[in-house]
Write a structure and sequence with these properties.
Layout lengths: L3 H23 L6 E7 L5 E10 L5 E7 L5 H36 L4 H4 L3 H6 L7 H13 L3 H9 L6 E2 L5 E2 L2 H12 L4 E3 L3 E3 L2 E3 L3 E5 L4 E8 L5 H16 L8 E5 L8 H13 L1
Parallel strand pairs: 10-11
Antiparallel strand pairs: 1-2, 2-3, 4-5, 6-9, 7-8, 9-10
Helix pairs in contact: 1-2, 7-9
Length: 279
């Protein structure tokens, strides 16, 4: 997956190349001629068209020609041409500087040092620069591990009428199946009903999800019976528990709602996934 910094560099180089082409297409070439500006005793500037000529004795002599007020367009043309040439030169230097950085980042991803370690050494080292595959596998291990709290949860709340996701797991509702399948289709790592410690409470949110680019975990709750007053009250209380313990929507918490009359808004789900879990 492309690094955002690398993408920004490539975008910058592309925009610079496009601008260089635009400037070169409109550049007014005045070879051997440049503009000189002098102050007339500080009262107003005077413009001169300057060039260099070769004398009979082989020396180079500068020739200055005063630009009259009625010919001020010539001064503007010379000034614009000189500025555009300088700007083109500067942009080309920027491109020349950016390209080696792009090449280095493309050929040496940030996890290349970690990948160069042997497997035994990797097991001894903690690093934020593990490659995506290693990081995702460890993330799955962390959120998928079995523990007594998880087992007791399923004993109290068994899945009696399962829906099966494309990944082959059992979920409790059709909406959860749709959400899980969307996550799976988009390549977003997720764990269904993980055990998560939130403050002093052990909760089992519908999903733990991972933004791979940011390597950031989002808890995702889908509240599916919001027209049921008792259920809605529990949901409000649950959101309050999350908020009290630093779980804020859009930061590390996502949620969606539905009622019998207003079903799952799939387009909204897609927008949410794109905004927080893909980009």
């Amino acid at each position: 997956m492309k690094d955002r910094f690398l993408e920004s560099l490539e975008q910058e180089k592309s925009e610079l190349a496009h601008k260089i082409q635009e400037l070169e297409n409109t550049l007014i070439y005045t070879p051997g001629i440049h503009l000189e500006i002098k102050n007339n005793k500080g009262r107003y500037p005077q413009f001169y068209k300057c060039s260099h000529i070769q004398t009979d004795d082989g020396e180079t002599r500068k020739v200055r020609e005063y630009i009259k007020q009625k010919d001020q367009e010539l001064a503007r043309m010379l000034a614009q041409g000189e500025y555009d040439r300088q700007l083109i030169e500067d942009m080309k230097k920027r491109c020349d500087i950016i390209q080696p950085v792009i090449d280095y980042y493309r050929d040496n991803p940030k996890f290349s040092v970690y990948n160069s370690l042997g497997e035994v050494r990797k097991s001894l080292v903690e690093s934020e620069y593990e490659d995506d595959e290693v990081f995702i596998n460890k993330w799955y291990d962390r959120y998928s591990q079995r523990n007594p709290a998880n087992d007791s949860f399923y004993e109290k709340h068994p899945i009696t009428k399962p829906y099966y996701t494309e990944r082959g797991e059992k979920v409790r509702s059709k909406s959860e199946k749709i959400i899980a399948d969307k996550l799976f289709k988009e390549g977003i790592p997720y764990v269904y009903e993980p055990t998560v410690v939130v403050g002093e409470k052990v909760l089992h949110p519908d999903f733990a999800t991972l933004n791979i680019v940011q390597r950031k975990t989002y808890i995702y709750e889908h509240f599916g019976m919001m027209d049921n007053p008792e259920y809605a009250a529990l949901c409000v209380n649950k959101i309050a528990v999350y908020d009290k313990n630093g779980f804020v929507y859009g930061n590390n918490l996502l949620y969606s709602f539905e009622t019998q009359n207003d079903g799952l808004d799939i387009k909204m789900i897609e927008r949410m996934l794109k905004r927080f879990l893909i980009d």
